[in-house]
Design a protein that fits this description.
Elements (H helix, E strand, L loop, with lengths): L1 H17 L9 E6 L10 E5 L5 E3 L12 E4 L8 E7 L5 E9 L5 E7 L4 E6 L11 E7 L14 E8 L3 E11 L16 E2 L4 E2 L12 E7 L4 E7 L10 E8 L2 E4 L2 E2 L3 E5 H7 L8 E11 L4 E2 L6 E5 L10 E5 L3 E6 L11 E7 L11 E7 L6 E5 L14 E10 L5 E10 L7 E8 L3 E7 L10 E9 L2 E8 L3 E5 L6 E11 L4 E5 L4 E4 L5 H46 L5 H30 L5 H30 L5 H23 L5 E4 L5 E4 L3 H20 L62 H5 L3 H30 L6 H9 L7 H19 L1 H10 L7 H5 L3 H20 L3 H14 L9 H14 L2 H6 L2 H11 L5 H12 L1 H16 L8 H15 L1 H6 L17 H7 L4 H19 L3
Antiparallel strand pairs: 1-11, 2-5, 3-4, 4-11, 5-10, 6-9, 6-11, 7-8, 7-10, 12-13, 14-15, 15-19, 16-17, 16-18, 16-20, 20-21, 20-22, 23-24, 24-27, 25-26, 25-28, 28-29, 30-31, 31-34, 32-33, 32-35, 35-36, 35-37, 38-39
Helix pairs in contact: 6-7, 7-24, 9-11, 11-12, 11-15, 14-16, 15-16, 15-18, 16-20, 19-20, 20-21, 21-23
């Protein structure tokens, strides 16, 4: 028994080796993407050169879409964008389909294949006559490769959609075979393998396949049927036993008849019944076929879709028409088409004198329209009896459109041309003569040229072009004009022939002249002629007015009818233009109103909807940030709090700890004495002493809370302050009461101010202080502007005079102006010397240095030359310079603000550091001017532009820093000293980049500290210090510089470090 079991097991193993079991089979995979949201199916990516795609839901189920779709070129109508749909390199795509809708301009699709080749498919703009069919169904397939592992020659790797206006992309699908796919797209196929101790055998089974039908075609037949034809597949390893034809209309393929033949014919009635249609008008029938082997349950992919479009109109009449003429007119006769996919609803005839292929309403005129399909003839009469076309005589070449139309009046036009020779020659050999007591006899011969015969004549006689009489309907070749109808004068006569049958006029005859005179009836004739002339003018005027009014009303009605059909409004072109412009302006105004309102409220120029979207987005981002901040602090501290809440809590806790520590560490010194019994007793502190101790403790706490005690390096050295703590006394000075300010005197109140101001004195005010106070704000601004223009004109004229004097021959005036346009940093040394020389001359003229020299000499100060200055000692030189500077400062103080501004503007143009090439007196004058303009009262008088010039000279980027430094200079001696030395130090440090007044303030503060470090620490009025506000009265430039300077920090740290020792060592 055991041997039988072993034998059976061996046979089973052999069977497994011969017939392996596949765990998974390769399949044809179709991926469908409907773009219902921005999460796409895997296997492809989308990229755009501009205007990225978006999910578009405003046109659901329109333009051939199903649900939402992909909006392309949506941000910029009229864009030129390329959208690349690239497939994963893990799959071999052999079939792709999608729709593109709402395209108003031509576009293209570039197909890229795996063998490196490309193919461009150019598409025309889509017709917008019916928006439901305004789309293209795109299909590309290499179906021979379906489910065939051996075919790896050519697949679709990507396609590029090159489009130029807002469009929709939808119903996207692609197919690949997972048998040849890799990565996550590959099919997992496992074959059982049995291994013995000697050999391993693996066997794979080839799956049956059926190929795609070939040479697939669709034909629309004349008898109103469609024939679908194909050939048997040339690929695959299995013969098909039937075929399934799938068809539908307008992009929906949902009918699936099958046959064993390779051809099927569908009648119009069959298709309309199967698809639920009442008429094939404007239908796009779509067909494709696949092969099947029902016995083995396998099938091929479908062939490419072939579309047969049934238009909106029936067939045209073709060549089955004639155009003839008779005495009735020009007759068009045609035969009705015998078979149609669209039922004939009527006929229409269009006529044009000028051919226009675009069917312009201003060129083509509809002369016939009828729903009576039994009538196939129309005659255009020789005489215009319809307003459809305005003509006088039919003659020459005419263009016809014979239209066979559906009931919806979609028409199939057949164009034809017909030439009419409808001419009549002029009357011949006219003569005129006076006939006594009768009238003027006019005679002529019949026309001898043209194709028509005259039936009547018109006789014209005139004195001039404005005085013409016409006699109509003359049936003979002579006519007598009675003297009652003509005046005594020189007349010109002409005759014109007319054929009433063919409505054709001849040209005018030759024009004989005659001196008309009826002597017998002279008086009566004069009166009659006058009346006839009056009536003639009245009649012609009335007729012309009526004609013009008829034409105007007809044109206005045509405009109303056209606009009613296009817009729903019965209105003229002008009324339509005005309405559409008004509506557009209202729409744009509303959007602009929203943008302006939102710009003023939020700083964003945006519509209400854009604002709501942005604010919602910012709110969500801020809430997320705050929550993340709370969670972070909770993880670190156990408190669910924001950073600022955490900082405030930790600061409060630390402050409480420091205060408690300081209070516990302060030792209050005691004073003892001996009482009457010789006992030692403690002298109780006075209330004033207790108060001072408390104030000192509070000051120490304030310093620790508000001052950074870090030790910084200054120029690679550590500044250490050696303080003899045994001999240091902290002096707490009482706060002095503010002294009342001395009233300022107004120089305009002096006798000198009352003197008459001469017009030629440019910088003297033309209005007194009292007059200025009486001006309104507008009048004051106008006065200041006038003064500014006067000063600017003076300075400009002054510069021109100086330039002519000082410019070297190598530099022209134009070149100098170009030099002045340069930034100060761009100037060469030669250019600096030139601009500084010109500026120096302007300053000397404005300040009047000659008068300054006289003032210096009037003070008994001898102006020394350079050689004489070198002979002075340091003390003598310092005393001399102080005397000069004092006189210059007093002199500058008397200058008008406008003169100061001119000096500052000159320095701003050349750069204060470049004054190194100026003479010493100019430098001192400039220094005094700078000190004067950095004065709180002067700053208040300056305009915004003038303050900007002062800021540029001082090296400030912010204009408000000028007011800050002016206030600081008024309160702090160190700042005032820095201002007075700024120009000289700027010149000395001209090679230092961005050297500003803040640098000078810092230098002076350091110098004061280094001169007396101990005094700088202990002579501090702690009661007057608010450490929490340190730096608030500094300019932005000073605050920046303070980060680079360590002295203030060292002072603060030394005070705090030694404060405890000071309290315990020295009693108050």
């Amino acid at each position: 028994m055991l041997k039988k079991i072993n034998t059976a097991l061996r046979l089973l193993v052999v069977a497994l080796l011969i017939y392996p079991f596949p765990i998974a089979f390769a399949t044809e995979v179709q991926v469908n993407e409907g773009f219902e949201d921005s999460t796409y199916e895997s296997g492809f990516t989308i990229s755009a050169t501009s205007d990225p795609v978006q999910i578009y839901s405003a046109e659901i189920n329109n333009y051939g879409t199903t649900g939402s779709s992909l909006g392309v070129c949506h941000m910029n109508n009229g864009c030129t964008a390329e959208y690349t749909f690239e497939f994963s390199s893990d799959i071999d795509v052999y079939e792709v389909g999608f729709i593109v809708g709402a395209v108003n301009q031509a576009y293209s699709i570039d197909w890229h294949y795996s063998d490196g080749t490309t193919e461009t498919e150019n598409k025309s703009a889509q017709s917008n006559s019916n928006l439901s069919t305004m789309y293209d169904d795109i299909y590309k397939s290499f179906t021979d490769y379906n489910a065939d592992e051996n075919n790896t020659d050519k697949f679709i790797t990507k396609f590029v959609l090159d489009i130029h206006d807002w469009s929709l992309f939808d119903t996207f699908y692609f197919q690949y075979d997972d048998a040849v796919a890799t990565g996550s797209f590959a099919a997992t196929t496992t074959t059982t393998t049995t291994t013995t101790t000697t050999t391993t055998t693996t066997t794979t089974t080839t799956l049956p396949t059926v190929g795609v039908p070939t040479n697939f075609s669709v034909t629309k037949n004349d008898n109103g049927s469609i024939t679908v034809d194909w050939d048997a597949p040339t690929t695959g390893n299995t013969t098909p036993d039937r075929y399934t034809v799938r068809y539908g209309d307008n992009g929906v393929l949902d009918q699936n008849p099958n046959t064993t033949d390779t051809e099927m014919t569908f009648t119009r009635s069959y298709l309309e019944t199967a698809l639920g249609l009442s008429n094939s008008e404007d239908i796009a029938y779509m067909f494709h076929v696949k092969a099947e082997n029902v016995a083995q349950s396998i099938e091929s992919a479908f062939t490419d879709v072939v579309t047969i479009t049934i238009g909106k109109s029936p067939s045209g009449v073709g060549n089955n028409y004639t155009i003839t003429e008779s005495t009735s007119g020009i007759t068009v006769d045609w035969d009705a088409p015998t078979s149609n996919w669209v039922d004939i609803g009527g006929y229409r005839i269009l006529v044009a004198e000028t051919y226009d292929a675009d069917y312009s309403a201003n060129t083509w005129f509809e002369v016939y329209r009828s729903t009576d399909t039994s009538t196939t003839e129309f005659t255009l009469p020789w005489v215009d009896n319809s307003e459809a076309i305005d003509y006088t005589t039919l003659n020459g070449t005419y263009y016809y459109r014979i239209s066979t139309c559906a009931s919806s009046w979609w028409c199939n036009d057949v164009e034809a041309t017909y030439t009419v020779d409808n001419t009549l020659g002029p009357p011949m050999n006219p003569t005129v003569e006076n006939v006594y007591n009768s009238g003027v006899l006019v005679e002529w011969d019949e026309p001898n040229t043209g194709t028509r015969t005259a039936t009547t004549y018109e006789l014209y006689y005139r004195i001039d072009a404005q005085n013409e009489t016409v006699v109509y309907n003359i049936t003979e070749t002579s006519y007598t004009i009675p003297y009652s109808a003509i005046t005594n004068d020189t007349y010109e006569f002409s005759i014109r022939a007319y054929s009433s049958t063919y409505n054709v006029y001849s040209g005018y005859s030759t024009e004989p002249t005659l001196e008309v005179f009826d002597k017998k009836a002279q008086d009566d004739a004069d009166a009659a002629a006058a009346e006839a002339e009056r009536q003639r003018k009245e009649r012609e005027a009335r007729e012309e007015a009526e004609r013009i009014e008829r034409e105007r009303q007809a044109e206005l009605q045509r405009q109303r009818d056209k606009n009613l059909s296009e817009t729903g409004y019965s209105e003229t072109d002008q009324e339509r233009s005005d309405r559409e412009y008004r509506e557009e302006q209202e729409r744009l105004a509303e959007l602009q109103r929203q943008r302006d309102k939102n710009a003023s409220e939020t700083g964003y120029s945006e519509t209400d909807q854009e604002r709501a979207d942005r604010e919602q987005r910012e709110y969500e981002e801020e809430q997320a940030r705050l929550q993340a901040e709370r969670e972070k602090n909770y993880a670190e501290t156990g408190y669910m709090e924001l950073d600022n809440e955490r900082e405030a809590r930790e600061l409060a806790e630390e402050k409480a700890r420091i205060e408690e520590e300081i209070k516990n560490s302060v030792v209050i010194p005691v004073e003892t004495t001996t009482d009457e019994d010789g006992n030692t007793v403690v002298v109780e502190q006075t209330d004033e002493e207790k108060k001072k101790v408390e104030e000192l403790v509070d000051a120490i706490i304030d310093i620790k809370n508000n001052v950074d005690f870090t030790e910084f390096e200054l120029e690679d050295e550590i500044i250490e302050v050696d303080i003899d703590l045994e001999n240091v006394v902290v002096v707490i000075e009482p706060i002095e009461e503010d002294k009342p300010e001395q009233p300022e005197t107004d120089p305009l109140d002096s006798e000198e101010g009352d003197k008459e101001i001469q017009p030629e004195q440019v910088f003297e005010q033309t209005k007194s202080e009292e007059e200025l106070e009486d001006l309104s704000e507008e009048e004051l601004e106008e006065y200041k502007e006038e003064r500014k223009e006067v000063v600017e004109a003076y300075v400009e004229e002054l510069e021109e005079e100086i330039i002519e004097e000082v410019l070297p021959e190598t530099v022209s005036v134009e070149e100098f102006k170009e030099i002045k346009e340069k930034e100060v940093e761009e100037l060469t040394e030669e250019e600096v010397a030139i601009v500084v020389e010109v500026a120096t001359e302007v300053i000397e003229e404005v300040v009047d240095t000659e008068e300054l020299t006289e003032v210096i000499e009037s003070e008994d100060i001898e102006i020394l030359e350079e050689e004489e200055l070198e002979d002075l000692s340091e003390e003598e030189l310092e005393a001399y310079e102080e005397e000069i500077e004092e006189v210059i400062e007093e002199f500058v103080e008397e200058l008008e603000t406008e003169e100061l501004v001119v000096v500052v503007e000159q320095i701003a143009e050349v750069g204060v550091e470049n004054l190194a090439v100026a003479d010493e007196q100019t430098v001192k004058v400039v220094q005094a001017v700078v000190a004067e303009v950095v004065d709180t009262e002067t700053v208040e008088e300056l305009s915004e532009e003038e303050v900007e010039a002062v800021a540029e000279v001082l090296g400030f980027e912010e204009e408000e820093d000028v007011q800050i430094i002016a206030e600081a200079a008024a309160k702090e001696e160190v700042v005032a000293e820095a201002v007075s030395e700024y120009v000289e130090r700027a010149i000395e440090n001209k090679d230092i980049e961005n050297f500003t007044l803040a640098d000078v303030v810092t230098e002076v503060q350091v110098e004061v500290f280094l001169a007396d470090p101990v005094g700088a620490i202990i002579d501090v009025d702690l009661e007057s210090i608010d450490f929490a506000t340190i730096g608030q009265d500094m300019t932005s430039d000073q605050r920046q510089k303070s980060k680079e300077v360590v002295v203030p920090v060292i002072i603060a740290s030394q005070i705090v470090a030694q404060a405890g020792a000071l309290i315990t060592r020295r009693p108050f």
